């Protein structure tokens, strides 16, 4: 091992000791040793062991640990700390601006273990509730994580959408005589994008010259496909085609869909549009976002394609957080913004009392909030604000208020926020008990996942959906681009069981209202219609829904 490797080990050991709250004198001694070793003019491997202890900044104890590393290539004390530190925490130690002491609070008090979780916590203003985390600190951490995640190879649709469309515009402007059409996962509205793909008529040599001139890395350049990567670390793939619409179709379907299509309708090279492919096959046009399973082909053949939901079909903001818990805006500000955007009503669902990390509402605060909402409803009529709560599902599956308190709400959203590392048996027990609670109106973000940040707890989706059908519980499609939970792949089964979905932004700011669109985009992939979406209900329909929910309470 050279000096740099040994110094790195001591530096990491110092950080991990601070992270785990160990004696600060000991951790500092390893930090000093790391600094000293890195600056040494000679290699420790070439230095007699007895001289280690006399080097200023090292000493006897550190000297023995240097010898251990030179002999074994490892530092056993460091290994002990690594073994009890989650991988995501170790990853965050490498993110600029997040020191061990702050990370200790994030991990042990906020219970966040990955960069993706921490970014979500920043977006929900969770850090502001802890000592040492002001608004500026939270913003700096948020920007550092965004920079870090932005240099990874996978991207949320929301995070790459603007970049993809800007790149598309730039490329088309640079080759005005050629055809470029975005294809692949972006065209299919997938929630995670690994690469951006185009079908193009441009010769590969011309494209190569363009990207060389603009300092892109050339990964491949062949007659039929070329691949480039720029400083943003996004891979561009171009399919060079003489049959644009055939290749666009081939590159914008799932494998299952495409296999079934080719079995039924062999393709030719002479289409003038994507629509013509379907006209020749004599079936209804299937948009690329619906080309996921073979069943959709049968529906198109039988003229049974439903009119899928559109962003303009959303009539309300359901599931939103105000200043009363961890939101940024007042209820009045949120209501007026809803009116300005053309929504008919607003459902305020602040966090419940167990959500101490989110400034959850105590019983006396609920009473005061409801009086405030009554006053606003008088002032803003005919617009209406509904009284709701996002009630934490506790470890035994109960909700965290008495029935009397729960009865004061128009709508109760039941969600899991704590103790997320569960086996399926535990997760199912909690969720099933909550679903069977007669006060539960909506099951919030059913798996607790954060895309590219945290796997959801394991659940039996069919049992969950069946239980919601039996108990008249709506399933949320949480539209936050990091959640998109319930996964759109289970919406088919929800519809089969006549379970309502609700596309909700889980908004903590006014800007969060815009996330509804990303929920709609993935809902379209499952063929969801506005009639089966709660947040598309008119005010009158929603009042009927509230009346039904209150009637089922025991």
Protein architecture, described:
This protein has helices spanning 3-19, 24-39, 59-72, 76-83, 87-92, 100-108, 115-123, 135-150, 157-174, 184-187, 204-213, 244-250, 255-264, 274-281, 295-301, 331-340, 363-380, 403-406, 424-436, 461-470, 491-496, 516-525, 539-551; strands at residues 155-156, 180-183, 192-193, 196-200, 217-221, 225-229, 235-240, 316-320, 345-351, 384-392, 411-415, 442-443, 474-478, 501-504. By secondary structure, it is α/β, with parallel strands linked by helices. The chain is globular, with a radius of gyration of 28 Å. The strands form three sheets. The chain has a seven-stranded parallel sheet. A five-stranded mixed sheet has the order 2-4-7-6-5, with helices on both faces. Strands 1-3 form a two-stranded antiparallel ribbon. The longest helix is centred in the N-terminal third of the chain and has 18 residues, at 157-174. Helix 21 (491-496) links the parallel strand 13 (474-478) and strand 14. The protein folds into three domains: 3-150, DNA polymerase beta, N-terminal domain-like (DNA polymerase, domain 1); 155-301, Beta Polymerase, domain 2 (2-Layer Sandwich), CATH 3.30.460.10; 311-551, Alpha-Beta Barrel (TIM Barrel). The chain starts with a helix and ends with a helix. 44% of the residues lie in helices and 12% in strands.
């Amino acid at each position: 091992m050279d000096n740099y490797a040994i110094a790195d080990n001591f530096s990491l050991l110092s950080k991990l000791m601070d992270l785990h709250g160990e004696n600060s004198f000991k951790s500092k001694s390893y930090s000093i040793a790391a600094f000293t070793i890195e600056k040494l003019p000679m290699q420790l491997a070439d230095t007699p062991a007895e001289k280690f202890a006399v080097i200023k900044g090292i000493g006897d104890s550190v000297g023995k640990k240097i010898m251990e590393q030179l002999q074994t290539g490892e530092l056993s004390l460091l290994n002990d700390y690594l073994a009890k530190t989650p991988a995501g925490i170790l990853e965050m130690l490498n993110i600029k601006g997040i020191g061990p002491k702050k990370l200790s609070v994030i991990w042990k008090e906020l219970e966040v273990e990955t960069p993706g979780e921490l970014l979500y916590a920043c977006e929900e203003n969770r850090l502001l509730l802890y000592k040492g985390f002001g608004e500026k600190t939270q913003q700096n951490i948020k920007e550092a994580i965004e920079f870090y995640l932005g240099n990874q190879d996978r991207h949320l649709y929301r995070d790459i959408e603007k970049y993809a469309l800007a790149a598309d515009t730039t490329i088309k402007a640079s080759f005005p005589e050629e055809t470029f059409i975005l294809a692949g996962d972006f065209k299919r509205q997938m929630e995670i994008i690994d690469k951006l793909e185009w079908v193009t008529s441009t010769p590969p040599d011309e494209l190569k010259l363009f990207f060389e001139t603009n300092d892109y890395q050339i990964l491949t350049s062949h007659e039929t496909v070329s691949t480039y990567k720029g400083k943003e670390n996004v891979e561009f793939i171009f399919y060079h085609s003489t049959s644009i619409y055939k290749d666009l179709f081939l590159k914008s379907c799932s494998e299952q869909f495409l296999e079934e299509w080719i079995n039924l309708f062999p393709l030719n090279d002479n289409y003038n549009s994507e629509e013509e492919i379907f006209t020749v096959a004599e079936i209804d046009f299937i948009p690329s976002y619906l080309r996921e399973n073979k069943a959709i082909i049968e529906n198109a053949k039988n003229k049974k394609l439903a009119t899928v939901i559109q962003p303009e079909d959303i009539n309300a903001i359901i599931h939103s957080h105000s200043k009363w818990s961890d939101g940024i805006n007042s209820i009045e500000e949120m209501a007026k913004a809803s009116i300005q955007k053309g929504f008919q009503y607003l459902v305020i669902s602040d966090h419940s009392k167990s959500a101490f990390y989110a400034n959850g509402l105590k019983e006396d605060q609920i009473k005061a909030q409801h009086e405030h909402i009554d006053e606003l409803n008088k002032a803003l009529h005919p617009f209406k604000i509904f009284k709701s709560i996002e009630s934490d599902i506790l470890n035994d599956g109960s909700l965290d208020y008495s029935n009397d308190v729960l009865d004061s709400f128009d709508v109760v959203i039941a969600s899991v926020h704590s103790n997320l590392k569960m086996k399926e048996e535990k997760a199912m027990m909690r969720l099933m008990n909550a679903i069977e609670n007669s006060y539960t109106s909506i099951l919030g973000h059913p798996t607790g996942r954060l895309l590219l940040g945290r796997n959801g707890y394991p659940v039996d989706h069919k049992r969950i959906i069946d239980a919601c059908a039996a108990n008249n519980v709506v399933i949320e499609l949480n539209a936050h681009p990091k959640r998109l939970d319930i996964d759109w792949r289970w919406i088919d089964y929800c519809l089969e069981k006549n379970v309502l979905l609700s596309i909700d932004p889980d908004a903590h700011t006014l800007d969060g209202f815009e996330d509804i669109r990303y929920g709609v985009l993935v809902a379209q992939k499952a063929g969801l219609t506005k009639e089966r979406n709660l947040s598309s209900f008119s005010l009158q329909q929603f009042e009927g829904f509230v009346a039904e929910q209150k009637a089922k309470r025991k």
